[in-house]
């Protein structure tokens, strides 16, 4: 909650008025009241009500009479009369709604009410802000002084008057405290004309300080609750709650006030359930009460011989059994009416939608290039050299004499062009595959001269792979001598050059 000034942002954050505990627009204050009669116009013969409600720090409020008929609106800062000097507050309610607030608070509309002096000037506001800035340091120092004097009390909050002449010290204590020496020390330490000590309870302390409850909302005593009723553990027993003090206690250290909110509804629902002392008499034995579920309408019973075997019986069956027992009749056993709640209903699986597949979908996966599993496997590729597989039209005689062709492992760059001057037998072979070609000319298929020759299209050619996992080398083949930079490799004799020379001659 915030006022219109909080909407002004600086560096993306709300600026705010830095006025902790109060808000000029009454948007984030304690015990706020909405004036639902503000838009309604009064009759022509009726005058406006001359009493206004003024809010001070935290939950302190007061009613003041507007004798000078000032035109006051919601959120105006005014200077009002005090017991000594004057105080600065903010108008919270004006108009006809103040009559209802006076009746609710039990305040009489008489001449004993203090009056409104004027609207606060800039000088009044400056003095008020200086006094408010001293409150935190004053509270910490006063706690040290009380500790040095050995007083068993806790100073929880301090409020300075608007003219900076008086200070109210709110404290909590279990026993009566003699603070006459403390008042003298505080007045001399902070240069205050008047010091007022006001004892409050633990719940009033939590209401003034404020906070967030276990439900995730602001405390009820801070926002709207003003009537603090006593809360006992019987309210928790009626609601079937475990008596755990850590869960049942609030920020004030006492039982939560919200335990009384739904107590009447539980008491009405318990009227339909039988007494816990009534036994169910059966032929198998007497069954006694264990627990109940008000929402599901189930009551758990167990036999005296089997106290650990709890049986869930519907409320209607329990009432019928009790009626039969009153007539002197018994049933065989209550096991027949047991409701088994242990079976869980299978719920439909959550259907994945876009953006909710995986929480780690935006995380970068590690790129382990040096990992052994990520290394690319060596693939054997069939390399066909233009020299080893020449065109049928030009080198038909050479193609007939070729009986074996070697398929070499690809360890070179695929973008590198093959060397036409390099003989096929000069390549080192690691894994060999032999290609056998039959010399049967009769069954040889006709070859289209216009299409290029493709490997594997000839049915007479059979590819035989040696079933070996290890790399083998041809022992009969002599290793190729290393190529020197100065020596050039022998040039290959091409039949096409001979034909061209003969034609030239």
Explain the overall architecture.
- Helices cover 20% and strands 16% of the residues.
- The protein has four domains: 4-120, no CATH class; 129-207, GMP Synthetase, Chain A, domain 3 (2-Layer Sandwich); 278-337; 372-443 and 453-505, no CATH class.
- It is of the alpha+beta class.
- The protein has twelve helices and 16 strands.
- It has a five-stranded mixed β-barrel. The chain has a four-stranded antiparallel beta sheet with strand order 11-12-13-14. A three-stranded mixed beta sheet has the order 8-9-10, with helices on both faces.
- It is extended.
- It has helices at 97-105, 122-133, 135-148, 180-190, 202-209, 220-223, 233-238, 245-248, 263-269, 315-326, 396-401, 495-504, and strands spanning 9-10, 13-14, 51-55, 61-65, 77-81, 86-93, 114-119, 154-160, 166-172, 194-199, 280-281, 286-293, 298-303, 311-314, 433-437, 461-465.
- It starts with 8 loop residues before the first strand and ends with a helix.
